[in-house]
Each structure stands twice: as C-alpha cells, then as structure tokens.
Amino acid sequence: MNDVVKNIMSCRSVRNYTAQKVSKDILDELLSVAVWSANAGNRQRTRIVVSQDDELNTRLGRAQNVVYAQFNARKPIELSEALIASTSRSGFYNAPTVVYLFAPNNFLFAEPDSYIMASNICHAAHSIGVDSCIISVATDYFIDDFGRKTLAAWDIPSDFHISAHVILGYHAGEYPAAHERRYHAPLFV
Hints:
The chain has helices at 3-10, 24-35, 54-72, 81-86, 110-127, 145-153, and strands at 47-51, 97-104, 131-135, 160-169. Helix 2 (24-35) crosses helix 5 (110-127). The longest helix has 19 residues, at 54-72. 38% of the residues lie in helices and 15% in strands.
C-alpha cells in the first residue's frame, strides 16, 4: 500500500480540539493544495476564507448549529441573537481554525467542487500532522445582519453561498478510532 492510500485510510474526522492554532506556514501549504483541487470545467470559482478569530468562529459556529437544527427539524429557518445566545454548542467543535468555502449560486457543480477542495485540505492536513473535519452546510446561516456584514467584510459576492467548512487544529484526547466499514460491497458488472 503506498503512502497516499495509507494517509487516506488513516485520516479521521476530529471533533475535539486543543486551543493551539495552525501556523501561517502550514495554512499556506494547505491552501496551496486547495487551489490545485479538481473542479468542474476548470472554473476555479470556490472562494476561501480562513479565520483564526475565536470570537468570530464561535459566533458563526453557533449560528450554523442553530440553522442546522432548525433545518433538521423541518422548521422555518430563523436566526436571531437570542437563538444564537441560547446555544452553547458551536457547529465547529471549538476548532481554532475554520476554513469557510463559498460557491457560486446557480452552478450545478458548486457543491462537488467545494467538497473536493475540502477533502483535499483534510488529507493534506493529516499528512503533515494537522487534524481536521469537514462540516457540511444544510442551508445558509449568513442570513442575519451580522452574517451579511461578515460576507461584505470578506468581499464575498452576493451571488455566492456558504457551501462547506473545514475545521483545523490539533486533537485533544485520544485520536478517533476507525469505525467499522458498512458500505455495500462494490458491484462489478
């Protein structure tokens, strides 16, 4: 088994982090990998924002968690400071670094492009000793004034939406064990 295959098979989603931030040099290396990700039609449209601002990531992680819970409960999506304050759980598991991936609206392959990029970041991170987890997006949570101001500050065009996140850092406690694989056996025809 070659090193790439071993790396992919040993990579785990980490959901418990220390406060240690990922260095700028390592982030630069991971973002270099990100921009070389395969993408539909070589359009290269995914926008990347990296934040190590604890307060901002906590606030956005709580907003993401509130919207995700409402989406799963099939409730109308509502976001307010009171709802955000009422949840103590961040959808980003208190990771010290969050990579926000934005994709163009009305492009059929926007989400696949973002998730290919997210996967590449995770596997590259694992290969150099940085832990990660892809956090999916059920629906846009940048829907309140704070979210809209944040998007404007990040220069995200109005015809883009949040499509995925990658959280990065260093695991606290035990590294997650591999779970049993339960996929159906591949069918060869």
